[in-house]
Amino acid sequence: MASDPRQRDLARIHIAAKALRLDRDTYVALVRRVSAACGRAVDSSADLDDAGRHALLREFAGLGFKADEQQSRKRVWAGKPKNTADVPMLRKVEAILADAKRPWAYAHAMAKRMHQVDKVEWLNPQQLHTLVAALQVDSARRARRNACGEPGLTEPGKD
After folding, report:
1. Is 52 exposed, middle or buried (0-12, 13-18, 19+ CB in 10 A)?
2. What is the C-alpha to C-alpha distance for residues 4 and 19, in angstroms, rounded to an integer?
3. 20: closest CA among 61, 50, 52, 51?
4. 95 neighbors 136 (Cβ within 8 angstroms)
5. Residue 93 falls within a domain, yes or no?
6. Domain that holds residue 30
7. Quick one: DSSP state of residue 41?
8. What confidence tens digit (pLDDT) does each residue in 7-66 have?
9. Is the pTM value of this prediction over 0.85?
10. Burial readout 90-99 (b: 16 or more C-beta within 10 A, e: otherwise)
């Protein structure tokens, strides 16, 4: 979501309206009613002030919208194995990738290149160990290059 409070509120309002399956006329009527109660009747949530946006969000909550459910969903990283929490070596792969600011696709490509296996989670323990070793070698190489101050080698994928 947006970092600007106004944009964040507007995004929540539109998410709530969609979750409550409000048609355009019902939505506009609701905005008018809430905005009139706040002092100035408007047709669009974009025209609401801070108090009006919060009043509209409270109205949506009264209609059954639960913002917490919408916002508390876990962020899913593309390509991240579902069993990462259960396999210590996958957690290590995840940590190395995060440190290098590389996506999971990088690890999957390495698994394919090294062991002809399409996904990291399909590697056996020995293969996973060699993948971690290769990622650590890459990490050490990047650290050496960055310590020497070589220009242009600090971004992922540029070395």
Report:
1. buried
2. 22
3. 61
4. no
5. yes
6. 5-71
7. -
8. 988 989 999 898 888 899 999 999 999 888 878 888 888 888 888 888 889 988 888 888
9. no
10. bebbbebbee
The answer as to whether 153 is a domain residue is: no
Among residues 15, 60, 16, the alpha carbon closest in space to that of 34 is found at 60
| All residues at 6 or more sequence positions from 106 whose CB lies less than 8 Å from its CB, including other chains | 97
Count how many Cα atoms sit within 13 Å of the Cα of residue 83 in the half-sphere of its side chain: 9
The per-residue pLDDT for range 62-86, each reduced to its tens digit, is: 888 887 654 545 555 678 888 888 8
Q: Domain check: are 66 and 95 in the same one?
A: no
Same domain flag for 12 and 66: yes
Count of C-beta atoms within a 10 Å radius of residue 84:
17
> What does the alpha-carbon distance between residue 2 and residue 20 come to, in Å, rounded to a whole number?
22
The total number of structural domains that make up the chain: 2
Same domain, 111 and 61: no
Cα 35 to Cα 39: distance, rounded to the nearest angstrom: 6
Last residue of a domain, one of 44, 71, 98: 71
